[in-house]
Amino acid sequence: MNISDAAEITSLPPKTIRYYEEIGLITPGRSANGYRSFTDMHIHQLTFLASARALGFSVEDCRSLLALWEDRDRASADVRKIAETHLGAIEAKIADLSAMRDTLRHLVNTCAGDNRPDCPILNSLSSSDCKYDVGGRGPRAKPP
Predict the structure, then answer these.
(1) How far is the C-alpha of 19 from the C-alpha of 15, rounded, in Å?
(2) What are the backbone angles phi and psi of residue 38, rounded to the nearest 5°?
């Protein structure tokens, strides 16, 4: 089947499929006219990659998971290790987002939001005492 058929079956854009080929995640055959030719195995690989990416796995994690999926002698511990590492990263992001939310909630609650120029939000953002590291490194301290 051609790339448009593969894209329709897997719900992946052709551009994504081409990218996966470019970085070596899949290797479709080529027909006599040079067009990509996808087999059922390629469709399974693409579906697997789509599911893994939907869960937020990195391309390199997907490469490892795909190799493990194709290896019938794999140890499930290897798969679990990758998933646990990814889960830890997700939990860290959630904690970071929660800290951002709490800090922003505190700032919004302390701002009168009226016609006066005094603004605790701007004061906090311009202060070295900002409760959240705006450089993206996470919370400096918990909001009061």
Answers:
(1) 6
(2) -105, 135
Classified as helix, coil or strand, 29 is strand
Alpha carbon distance 109, 106 (integer Å): 5
DSSP H or E run through 119? none
Residue 141, SS3 per DSSP: coil
Task: At 34, list the tokens.
Answer: 């040079």
Range of the domain at 110: 95-139
User: Residue 75 domain-assigned?
Assistant: no
- Rounded (to 5) percent helix, strand, coil in the chain: 60, 5, 35
One digit per residue, pLDDT tens: the chain, 144 residues? 999 999 999 999 999 999 999 999 999 999 899 899 999 999 999 999 999 999 999 999 999 999 999 999 999 999 999 999 999 999 999 999 999 999 899 999 999 888 888 888 888 888 766 655 545 555 554 444
The total number of structural domains that make up the chain: 2
* Domain annotation covers residue 124: yes
Q: Are residues 54 and 102 in the same domain?
A: no
> Cβ(10)–Cβ(52) under 8 Å?
no
